[in-house]
């Protein structure tokens, strides 16, 4: 039985020479990958030493700098405290964390989200609109070109149009009794708050987030894929807590994902006529398991926060 209780839960475009100097370290590199099935090996993307010392290699480095430090390297297009690598761990390398090597070869592709075939550049634009709560860079912008080059390089040797193992957040079955926000709050306090804060606010060093906010004005908005409880549960189960991936039960991954997504966050930019109800009917009613437009503790979620 689903219970609803209050409160929870992973450019200014600089000159190329400056972007290349950005340190590529980030917190997502710390955790080990989950154990691989005996008969299955993840695709291995190229290493930095494999980059050619030419204009293409420079563009790839710039793309990687944007990927790990999006909030600073693409500040014009980011409206919150997120970076690409918050959802695509280990600089977009990690299996079961929607790695770039699993995404790039699958485009162009139809997306139900906008009911049309999208190019890879359009897919990246969507990340800026929803996960970054910002605005889409132009398809021919330096930001899109650099991120596309980085993705293309990461997928070097990957088959085109083949769904590689580890390319998504794995599906985790919903608990038979449904998710429980009270249990999710307990899991969050025990396993997540040490990194993401008691109120999901994340952790900062100066003006930059070193651990991302999970709800509130600086987190992803109601249109981001992570707002789906089923999507967040898959990410959490196979990637969190940092350094202890796979340690939560399937049920607790669902409970804490629901708790995380039972909090307000920025509005879905597709809001129709100022109506949460209309927006839910069109975009959220059949979009996995989510709480947009639902009543939680007497309050309708989805009204947004600035």
What does this protein look like?
The protein is mainly alpha-helical. A hairpin with a 2-residue loop joins strand 3 and strand 4 (208-211). The chain has eleven helices and six strands. It folds into two domains: 51-167, Cytochrome Bc1 Complex, Chain D, domain 2, CATH 1.10.760.10; 169-305, Cytochrome Bc1 Complex, Chain D, domain 2 (Orthogonal Bundle), CATH 1.10.760. The radius of gyration is 19 Å and the shape is globular. It has helices at 16-20, 55-68, 70-73, 89-92, 100-103, 120-129, 142-154, 181-196, 229-239, 250-260, 276-284, and strands at 109-111, 116-118, 203-205, 208-211, 295-296, 299-300. Mean pLDDT is 90; it is low at 1-34. It has a two-stranded antiparallel ribbon with strand order 1-2. The longest helix has 16 residues, at 181-196.
Topology:
Elements: H1 16-20, H2 55-68, H3 70-73, H4 89-92, H5 100-103, E1 109-111, E2 116-118, H6 120-129, H7 142-154, H8 181-196, E3 203-205, E4 208-211, H9 229-239, H10 250-260, H11 276-284, E5 295-296, E6 299-300
Antiparallel strand pairs: 1-2, 3-4, 5-6
Helix pairs in contact: 2-7, 6-7, 8-10, 9-10
GO cellular component, one term: periplasmic space
Protein name: Thiosulfate dehydrogenase
Pfam families: Cytochrome_CBB3, SoxA-TsdA_cyt-c
